[in-house]
Every structure is written in C-alpha cells, then in structure tokens.
Write a structure and sequence with these properties.
The chain is 32% helix and 28% strand. The protein has nine helices and 14 strands. Keywords: ATP-binding, Nucleotide-binding, Transport.
Length: 287
C-alpha cells in the first residue's frame, strides 16, 4: 500500500506541478490518468526518489519514503517514459550491469536474468544490442530491468507510447502478469490501457487529484446516463458533451444526461473514457 499525503511540488519557473495530492493506492495494477502536462511524470519522478517534494509525506508499507529514500530504492523498479542504453552492450550484458548496480550477486543474478529474459520473451535476443531493438522489444527490456531485484513497487511512465497495436497488446499482457502481489503504477494518457489493465485509477489535472477509486465503482454514477448521437441538438451544455469521435467517417458524440437528449439518442454503457472526460469537465468547472 502506497500513501501520499499533501504532496506539493513547484518548479523554479513558478509551475505548480503537484498541488496537495493526497491518496492511498492499493496493491495490483493501478492507473494514473491525466492529460499531457497534468503532473503525472512529476508525481512518478517524486515517487521514484529522483526529485524531492516541496512538502508532504509518502509512506510505502510502513516505510517513510521522504526520510528513507534509499530504503525504498531497494524495493523499487522504474521504467521512465524515455530511457537510453549503452550502444555497444547486448541485452544480457546490460541486464548484468544493472543487476550489479542493484547489488544482485552471483547465481542469483544469473538466475534472475534468465527468468526475466524468458518472461519478457527476449531469450533469443539476449546477445543482440538493445540499441538495435524495435520499440516493443526495447520496452520489454525496460520491464525486465525494472523487475531486477524482485521489487514490490514498480513505476511505469507511458510504457506503451509509440508502440504499434501488436507491440502494445504484447506489453499489456506482460504488465498484467507481473502485477501479482505488488503495486504496479501505470502512468498514461491512453484511457483504454487503464480500463483494460487496472482495477484502480487516479485522475489528475493541473497537478491536482480530481478523482480516484475502483474503476467499476467510478462508472456506477454514469450508468444509464451516457448517450450516443450522430449530431448534437441545441441546448446541451458544453460540459455535458463528453467526447466527439468518428467511426467510418461519421461523427459520433457521447453526451451525459439524465434522460435522452434527443429522439435518436442511443443509451450506451459507461466507459472509463466517459468518466475521464466527465471528471475533467467537473474539475474545470470548479477551478
């Protein structure tokens, strides 16, 4: 269990990146949703002990993270959004190097690396240079290095960004498989990934937490109130129009309303994307 209380972070240019964030995150796969610039990466870097919060408290399974960052690092796996690799090192050699830095010795190191190569489906590529890997293979390598040392907290920042559909599906299946008996915090702006993978979600915007909870429970208030239309009738408040998309070249609007906003409105099951846009709209109305 990870608990954050009154976490604040302001950068030198005056940007309030985190604004009094208070939340408790359970074990399992947890999603962190928000638009670009919402503060997701700042929160991730703070939890990964790469930067200090200006104020507040962080506790992980009874450990005071602010005062004992090294104790958390020994239980932490981190996959940043962008990471570099040594250009002349193979996959296995680079995992060996990182394992040594993590203090994993001897047979334990060898056994862990072999297991992680198998888990991430990289065994046959173990002697190839990571710099030449495809995007999906690099991300699987990133997961492997994050899992070295059997961490209890894994932080992943936009792990599926830039991947094609096949690579994304493969990585998502891998993420689900590693989330047993540990907390995997997945930061993304791809709502579909969170809905498919996570049982719990936190939504942040402009550095502030605006909603959090069990994914299924968050959708309950919207059930029966989401309507799909091909065109918008007049008189619908802007904040009730959750999204506009296109399917087969035709516009499709999703609208929040207690009753059908038009005769041709089709009632639709609520999705996490509906909740996401609804929460952002509510947040903008209260800011």
């Amino acid at each position: 269990m990870l608990t954050l209380k009154n976490i604040n972070k302001k950068y030198a240019d005056g940007t309030q990146a985190l604004n009094d964030v208070t939340i408790t995150l359970p074990a399992g796969m947890v999603g962190l949703l928000g638009p670009n610039g919402a503060g997701k990466s700042t929160l991730m870097r703070t939890l990964a002990c790469l930067q200090n919060a200006d104020s507040g408290h962080i506790n992980f399974n009874g450990l005071d993270v602010i005062s004992q960052p090294d104790a958390l690092r020994s239980q932490l796996g981190y996959l940043p959004q962008y990471f570099g690799v040594y250009p002349n090192m193979s996959c296995r050699a680079l995992l060996e190097h990182i394992a040594v830095l993590k203090g994993i010795d001897g047979n334990a190191r060898k056994n862990q690396i072999n297991s992680l190569l198998e888990l991430t489906n990289l065994t046959q590529f173990a002697n190839k240079k990571v710099v030449n890997f495809s995007g999906g293979m690099k991300q699987r390598f990133g997961v492997a290095q994050a899992l070295l040392g059997n961490p209890k907290l894994i932080i992943m920042d936009e792990p599926t960004a830039g991947l094609d559909p096949v690579e994304r599906e493969s990585l998502n299946n891998l993420l689900v498989s590693i989330s047993q008996n540990r907390l995997v915090l997945l930061s993304t702006h791809i709502v579909e990934d969170v809905e498919n993978l996570c049982h719990y979600v936190a939504i942040i915007d402009q550095g502030a937490l605006i909603q959090s909870g069990d994914v299924k429970e968050l959708l309950v208030p919207l059930e029966g109130k989401i309507w799909q239309l091909e065109s918008l009738p007049t008189g619908i408040p802007n904040q009730h129009v959750l999204s506009k998309s296109h399917r087969y070249g035709r516009a499709s609007f999703r609208v929040y309303a207690d009753t059908a906003p038009a005769q041709n409105a089709i009632n639709s099951p609520a999705t996490l994307q509906d909740k996401y846009f609804f929460a952002l709209n509510e947040g903008s109305q209260t800011c």
